[in-house]
Design brief:
With 381 residues, the chain is of the alpha+beta class. It is built from eleven helices and 15 strands. The strands form three sheets. It has a six-stranded mixed β-sheet. It has a five-stranded antiparallel β-sheet with strand order 6-7-8-9-12. The relative contact order is 0.13.
Length: 381
């Protein structure tokens, strides 16, 4: 990750590749690439000089950090170019999260007091409203699911965060468990209000859809139709059939969940990131199915986990996350969530968090555990 003031892009290459992955490997279709200000390729296949090209600037606080370039059929279509501009704005928002906060933000994060807010000219009533909205949005009381352990951890980097998660039962046959983890590209009151709007939309979409991919696409169409594209949402959705352990997973620009097998096998990401919602009229997220065996745990999280930084500036990263989960095995969902939470605290030390942290885990109890315990009360750690 590099800074943005000297013209180098504050963009993580791995994240960029995940954003562009749905556009890769599609011969004869429009491709997307991200170039740095000097024209070098950061992500994607690069630019074909012979193709029709359209581009949009990616800026952070007015500074050009990259260019999003589309090439091939449809690149010059007005609707596509509008979507390209919207996507560039979203990438710029993601980059801005890695850049140093403004002085006002640092003071708020350090003091977190109404007196400080007033000194900076910030409406304390608005902050209070945002905090109340945040408490309604972030679900800290998941449902009972017999035979399963559910756990979560949430920590906002600011008074009002941009993360959202929820675990809830769907009102249809078998009462499937839905898991939703989301992250708005911005922060503060605007992000909290967008989440407040998106939450009931996602509930309705899941109730009316055959699976999580269709629900994500329905939610996206509503957001785009409501012209709420100044902010964008990465969204992970999973639906579990408790009786069988069958899970369907879909993601829209969000980190895929990690499956921690009970048998000690490889911890692996489930599915692909897909395209974030709010930019394109149709996102068509990929959907993956798996069976959650007794003792398996599915862990969802936001990038505040992997992007967390140590006092020396090192990122927590994917490898450290997987190693933390591996070291905590065998463990229930609450144990794995607590292990990540504690590892982050030790890693960051006194360093201020760069982003909200959300961790959600769903674990199917081993047979002996299920027989020895009644109910399935969830736990927040």
């Amino acid at each position: 990750m590099t800074g943005g003031r000297d013209g180098r892009a504050p963009l993580d290459r791995g994240r960029l590749e995940r954003i562009l992955a749905p556009f890769a490997g599609r011969p004869g279709r429009t491709s997307l690439s991200i170039l740095d200000p000097a024209g070098a390729t950061l992500a994607g296949p690069g630019v074909d000089d012979g193709a029709d090209l359209a581009e949009a600037e990616v800026r952070v606080d007015g500074t050009l950090v990259a260019r999003l370039v589309a090439g091939g059929p449809g690149a010059l279509d007005p609707d596509f170019r509008a979507a390209l501009e919207a996507t560039a704005v979203a990438i710029g928002e993601l980059a801005a999260e890695t850049v140093a906060r403004s002085t006002a933000e640092q003071v708020l994060a350090t003091h977190r007091s109404a007196q400080t807010a007033e000194a900076l000219g910030i409406d304390t009533a608005e902050l209070a409203k945002g905090r109340r909205q945040q408490r309604r949005i972030v679900s800290l009381d998941p449902p009972d699911v017999p035979g399963y352990d559910l756990a979560s951890h949430y920590a906002a980097a600011r008074d009002i965060g941009g993360d959202f998660f929820e675990l809830f039962r769907l009102p249809r046959r078998g009462h499937p468990l839905a898991m939703v983890v989301a992250d708005v590209t911005g922060k503060g009151l605007d992000a909290a209000l967008l989440m407040a709007f998106a939450r009931p939309v996602m509930h309705s979409a899941l109730n009316a859809s055959r699976g999580p991919a269709e629900a994500i696409d329905r939610t996206n169409r509503v957001l785009v139709g409501e012209n709420r594209a100044t902010l964008f949402i990465t969204l992970l959705c999973a639906v579990l059939a408790p009786a069988t352990g069958h899970v369907r997973v879909a993601s829209a620009g969000h980190e895929p969940p990690l499956l921690v097998p009970a048998d000690g096998g490889t911890i692996w990401p489930v599915g692909q990131a897909g395209v974030m919602i709010g930019a394109f009229e149709s996102v068509e997220p990929p959907e993956v199915e798996l069976e959650l065996a007794p003792g398996d745990v599915l862990v969802g999280y936001t990038d505040g986990v992997t992007d967390a930084r140590s006092p020396s500036g090192e990122m927590f990263g994917d490898e450290r996350l997987v190693a933390t989960l591996d070291a905590a095995r065998p463990g229930s969902a609450p144990m794995l969530v607590a292990a990540i939470r504690d590892a982050l605290a030790a890693f960051q030390g006194a360093e201020e968090p760069v982003d909200d942290v959300t961790i959600v885990a769903v674990g199917r109890r081993a047979l002996a555990q299920s027989q020895g315990r009644r109910g399935g009360r969830s736990k927040t750690v």
